[in-house]
Amino acid sequence: MGRTAKEFLEFFSGIGLVREGLAPGGWRCVFANDNDERKNGVYLDRFPDDDALCQDDVNDTRKILARLPKQAFLATSSFPCVDLSRAGKQKGISGPHSSAFHGFVRVLRGLGRRKPKVLLLENVPGLLTTRGGTDFRIVAREIAGLGYFLDAFLLNAAHFTPQNRQRLFIVGVTKELKPGRVISGRGPLPDRPSELTTARLDKLIRETPLPTGWVRFPLPSPPSTKQTLLDIVDLDEGGKWWPDPRVDKVFRQIPDNHRRILREKLVSRTTWAGTIRTNHRGGRTWADLRLDGLAGTILTPRAAGGRQILVVTKDGHLKMRWLTARECGKLQGAAS
Fold it and tell me: Looking at the structure, do residues 235 and 99 belong to the same domain, yes or no?
């Protein structure tokens, strides 16, 4: 394999989490792109000696192509999920944010023979449901139209860190990599660990013909982490815990069955941590409490209900505060 075998392009790079995840495998980021000023500031703080970051809009095809290296083996794309997520308004792939996907496709098309041999796209599972699956079909056909054979699977971050964060991954490979047997027709798909797919995803794959074709890479069952939220959070962070009246107010917003469980933990003096995300239904505020030892999905601060409340029972006392930025970073694998 040549020099470019482990060089990759990181589109919609955010603060560089894909780069951080690939680095232990020996991958080198030779180009990163995002036009969010705040994210770029964090990216440059995290990788200060690097000149890979391009801050132009991905829709400015000419500028992006001028910055791209001659060749890279892999391109990753975590294009905006705002218009696809259940936390947003689900305007779909043509929405004002998620439509940036089309800019990414135009860049790949402009690369011609220089296009990477492998693509890795990541987004929310909402891509499977917006507009009845139409958006998923559009994404798959656009990528396949560039000459890539596709596979798609789901993976939850909870297999690696105590955060419930399921994501959809679409992998594309060119013909020269010999992707294997092409799936055809609407028959049953080759077996895959149940944690990596759903009946809806399999149905969409069967019902979405591509100019190249679908393939099914042999994927192992994901691991199981032994960490819980209690292993991540700081129980002794002084000065940030809320006063009792504020805790009591949130406690009253928790549904009765979950309040009962919390009381049992307090009576038994159990040390435990969970999270709450508040929302408004039926004219009142509800505090939705997770009891499984996981945080909910870490959302952008711009999303409705983006911040999560940390709930701790310790020595018979109930404590609450916001999850800190450091704790969120640890849940994302970006801090220690």
Answer: no
pTM for this model (two decimals):
0.92
DSSP string, 48-112: TT---EE-S-TT-HHHHHHHS-S--SEEEE----TTTSTTTT---TTSTTTTHHHHHHHHHHHHG
User: What is the spatial distance between Cα 300 and Cα 86, in angstroms, rounded to a whole number?
Assistant: 13
Q: How many separate domains does the chain show?
A: 2
Q: Are 123 and 78 in contact (CB under 8 A)?
A: yes
Tell me whether residue 222 is in a domain. no
For the segment 17-70, what is each residue's pLDDT rounded down to a tens digit?
999 999 999 999 999 999 999 999 999 999 988 889 999 999 999 999 999 988
Three-class SS of residue 149?
strand
- Domain containing 280 equals 229-331
CB 58 within 8 A of CB 107: yes
pLDDT tens per residue, range 148-174: 999 999 999 999 999 999 999 999 999
278-313: pLDDT as tens digits: 988 888 889 999 999 999 998 865 555 568 999 999
- Are residue 46 and residue 183 in the same domain, yes or no? yes
Main-chain dihedrals φ then ψ at residue 47, nearest 5 degrees: -130, 65
Do 245 and 136 share a structural domain? no
44 φ/ψ sector (left φ>0, alpha ψ -120 to 50, else beta): alpha
User: Has residue 25 been placed in a domain?
Assistant: yes
Q: In this structure, are 68 and 154 located in the same domain?
A: yes
180 and 288 both lie in a single domain: no
